[in-house]
Amino acid sequence: MRIVSLCPSLTELVFDLDAADGLVGITKYCIHPAEGVAQIEKVAGTKDPDVSRIIELRPDVVLINEEENRLEDAEALTKAGLHLVSTFPKTPLETAPMVRLIGDALAELAGKGSHQIQRRAAAIALEIEDRCALVTAAAKDAAPVTFAYLIWRKPWMSVNGDTYPSAILEQAGGVNVFAANDARFPAFEIESLRDASPELVLLCTEPFPFAEKHIDELASATGLERKRFRIADGEYLSWHGSRTPQGVDYAAKLLRE
Predict the structure, then answer these.
(1) I need a surface site. Which of 85, 194, 234, 236 has the fewest CB within 10 A?
(2) Taking a C-beta distance cutoff of 8 angstroms, is the pair 151, 158 a contact?
(3) CATH of 145-256, one of 2.60.120.10, 3.40.50.1980, 3.40.1170.60, 3.40.50.300
């Protein structure tokens, strides 16, 4: 079995499915688990993969995500005769069938280890469903919390309601103040954030590496209380796969605090 993964969270999932021995190519952004990915060939980035090298690696399957990866690269790989498994969960609960899909795809290639992969996929998917059910139930008895989830600076950018980070926070009782925006990743002016006055402003650690100094900047520019702002772990709130159960709990913890 030969696997190329072009999405960091899917690479992590392959390891957690005990199928990492088959990985022959990953992106430079695939960083977990650190010791495991260090030994695997990097085929450039998620938005600019080395298509020619991927073809040379002769993978049995290429794992992609429709948001992380570009359509033109997927089309080039498909045209070259490679088999792609495409994913695009927009909610935590949608991640469960995604895990089962990848588990089935890898098990079909694994031969002797197929049952172990499917068992691991089933366990992870069930844990996702259980955590989603518990957090959703708890949110029904809690007051909603308005939030903004920031992903970029210069320009300031957030997420609308059609995104995974928004969904994982909404599931826990959050109300996204930019949910109705037509753009999935809307740019906004400081005045818009000030006028929306969210109870919680989350500054995500990726793709932009927000830090405490940016909280100072935004609090000063908006006039909102500094205690409304938090640095948020982008891996827990935007990586979907084996990290999803912890992400579901993390989102709920942020809103409770």
Answers:
(1) 194
(2) yes
(3) 3.40.50.1980
